[in-house]
């Protein structure tokens, strides 16, 4: 009993440690202090927002963590429990609104951001003491601009204007990839597509060759097993019988002849249309001897 209790405690401790380590991958990714023409919330209103990013390669549950704008009050806004949307998928984002209206839902925080001032934002773990991530937004951040990481979850911050090359990306990747570097490089090296054609043909023929080898090996293994079974049926041991005296396995023609003979023998009755088969069926009840057909039904008066 004590052993099981100790194992249970160890498992719970390991799970809590791994859960806490997973939350360390939570990152503040992008902040907008003055939202005059950007994304709107679920009430159709524009407000300041804070984007969090799951930098791990697994889903991350962030309920019961704290988001605050005051280091003296680390538990200013606790992310509520019981909302399925608080589980951030791997390498994905979630948006929190700094509108001071937590009654509007899980993602509406209890504080607002102050334009024209430095805004410190921190994320604390469920104990309210462990700081997971923090950032200070500069006071000179213009309206409609964001303070964002240059790449999701990585070091290095910059001011984004929303213009080409400086995109504002709420709930999306900070780096917008509209091209694939490897595809572009392949296109540059092989403009006519001959290399792609040869590569595709080589893959197809290699796959067919491998299938042929597999089928050949399966056939050889089956023939060897068939020969062993035939020797056992003759009472011969494979290790004691010389190779030249070993009976060969049945050829495919012989097997086909045996199968056809069995088919003709077992199904010959179905081919004979002039044979009538009568099967005797024993029944405890017969409707012909029922008395209900012999009684007269009296008319109603």
Describe the 3D structure.
This protein has 301 residues and is an alpha+beta fold. It has five helices and eleven strands. It has a five-stranded antiparallel beta sheet, with no helix packed on it. Strand 8 and strand 9 (131-137) form a beta hairpin. The longest helix has 40 residues, at 194-233. It is extended, with a radius of gyration of 39 Å.
Describe how the helices and strands are arranged:
Blueprint: H1 2-23, E1 26-32, E2 49-54, E3 60-61, E4 66-68, E5 77-78, E6 87-88, E7 93-97, E8 119-124, E9 131-137, E10 146-149, E11 157-160, H2 181-189, H3 194-233, H4 252-266, H5 268-271
Radius of gyration: 39 Å
- Numbering strands along the chain, what is their spatial order in the largest sheet? 7-2-1-10-11
CATH homolog superfamily of the largest domain: Lamin Tail domain
Number of strands: 11
Q: Which structural category fits the helices and strands?
A: alpha+beta
């Amino acid at each position: 009993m004590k052993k099981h209790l100790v194992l249970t405690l160890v498992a719970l401790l390991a799970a809590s440690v791994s859960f806490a380590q997973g939350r360390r991958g939570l990152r503040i990714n992008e902040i907008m202090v003055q939202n005059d023409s950007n994304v709107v919330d679920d009430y159709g209103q524009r407000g300041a927002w804070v984007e969090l990013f799951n930098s791990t390669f697994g889903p991350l549950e962030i309920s019961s963590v704290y988001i605050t704008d005051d280091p003296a009050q680390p538990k200013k806004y606790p992310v509520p429990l019981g909302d399925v949307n608080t589980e951030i998928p791997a390498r994905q984002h979630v948006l929190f609104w700094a509108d001071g209206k937590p009654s509007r839902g899980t993602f509406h925080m209890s504080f607002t951001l102050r334009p024209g001032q430095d805004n410190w934002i921190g994320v604390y773990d469920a104990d309210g003491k462990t700081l997971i991530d923090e950032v200070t937004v500069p006071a000179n951040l213009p309206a409609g601009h964001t303070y964002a990481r240059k790449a999701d979850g990585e070091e290095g911050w910059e001011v984004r204007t929303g213009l080409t090359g400086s995109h504002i990306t709420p709930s999306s990747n900070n780096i917008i990839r509209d091209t694939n570097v490897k595809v572009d490089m392949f296109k540059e090296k092989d403009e006519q597509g001959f290399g792609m054609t040869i590569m595709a043909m080589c893959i197809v023929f290699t796959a067919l060759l491998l299938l042929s080898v597999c089928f050949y090996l399966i056939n050889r293994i089956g023939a060897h097993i068939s020969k062993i079974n035939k020797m056992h049926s003759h009472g011969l041991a494979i290790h004691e019988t010389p190779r030249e005296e070993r009976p060969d396995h049945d050829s495919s023609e012989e097997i086909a002849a045996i199968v056809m003979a069995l088919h003709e023998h077992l199904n010959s009755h179905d081919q004979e249309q002039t044979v009538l088969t009568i099967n005797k069926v024993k029944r405890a009840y017969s409707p012909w001897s029922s008395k209900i057909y012999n009684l007269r039904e009296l008319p109603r008066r």
